[in-house]
Amino acid sequence: MTTPIYLDYQATTPVDPRVLETMLPYFQNAYGNAASRSHAFGWEAEKAVDAARGQIASLIGASPKEIVFTSGSTEAINLALKGVVEMYASKGKHIITSEAEHKAVLDTCKHLEKHGVEVTYLAPDSKGRHTVEQVAAAMRDDTILVAIMWANNEIGTINPVREIGALCHDMGTLFFCDATQAVGKVPVDVQADNIDLLCMSAHKIYGPKGVGCLYVRRRNPRVRLVAQMDGGGHERGMRSGTLNVPGIVGLARACELCEQELEQDAAHAIALRARFEKKVFAALDHVHVNGDEEHRLPGCSNLSFAYVEGESLIMGIPNLAVSSGSACTSASLEPSHVLQAMGVGDELAHSSIRFGFGRFTTEDEVDRAADQVISAVNKLRDLSPLYEMVKEGIDLSTVNWTAH
Ligand code: PLP
Known about the structure:
Blueprint: E1 5-6, H1 17-23, H2 25-28, H3 40-60, E2 67-70, H4 73-87, E3 94-98, H5 103-114, E4 118-122, H6 132-138, E5 143-147, H7 161-171, E6 174-178, E7 197-201, E8 212-216, H8 245-283, E9 287-290, E10 300-305, H9 310-316, E11 320-321, H10 337-341, H11 346-350, E12 352-356, H12 363-382, H13 385-391
Parallel strand pairs: 1-11, 3-4, 3-5, 5-6, 6-7
Antiparallel strand pairs: 2-8, 7-8, 9-10, 10-12
Helix pairs in contact: 1-8, 3-8, 4-5, 8-12
């Protein structure tokens, strides 16, 4: 079997060889526990963690002490939401979030609802975006937290984060931003963007899996959290557990490379996406872009192909590693909750595929991928009586084509 072309950069990214190289000594020689204070192995590990903290903070305009290491964004989200709810219980019990958030946020909110928290789920517009006015309208006296993601993992739509953050600061409400898909891809500055809590994950930015962090603002305002993990009191008591030193070093190197190469990476991903979409749109009709073309992550293209069924299309392109809807929910055949929230009909939602382009994608891969998609869609449409009718000019607006 030939290796498929990897076009699933929103699900995860390959580890950059430069990141791996930086990590290796921390498995082989410098394997100390960063909390060991009595010998050189511990000191060396601690030094590496300190340097990493500075590097990571630098990418997002934070200070090193504001970084709390976690096992990734899911854990950081749990710590942020549950930690805020517990700490600020006397202030209020209302959270505002979006129907289009990642399941890590939605399921944490569902958990909190069982414990008496009230959650407002805002519906995104047809492009998956929210407005600051919409958030303002949902604010209550007892709102303690707004959780709106920077960029959506399924469609790549980017929210007006800076404006939402400014609103939260005016209202004295904390603002948590899931920036897992945005950090390293677009400029993020927690000061200018008015963010109080932010999560990121190494495996989305060419680092290793299983490591990430939570940014917790220390000044104006100082954010306090109730820890969700009891133990040795690591990370200033906010997240106990022996630090994953190689992972943290890898996350930091990944951040450093993103900081240095952000513009180049973005230009590369945008050019490849444009090349891909141009080819596909030139060859196929009835293809829809899901998301906001004006405010979209550089490497993300979520397309719906009318008159074909998404799972059949995925099976028709076995040499492409892509995802239908979110990778995290692809085990179920439910239409994507994000597309549903945007008002995309079930038929088009089922025929949607997310293509993700990144640092190591080549033009040749994009061309071959586009050719394979075009050929598979054409083949499937040749089998579709409805598409036959469309070609003959019959108005199908009143026909439910999946019923056939
Ligand atoms: N939030 C978003 C927007 C994501 O894309 C992901 C990854 O799928 C997560 C959270 C969860 O991140 P992790 O895999 O680090 O737990």
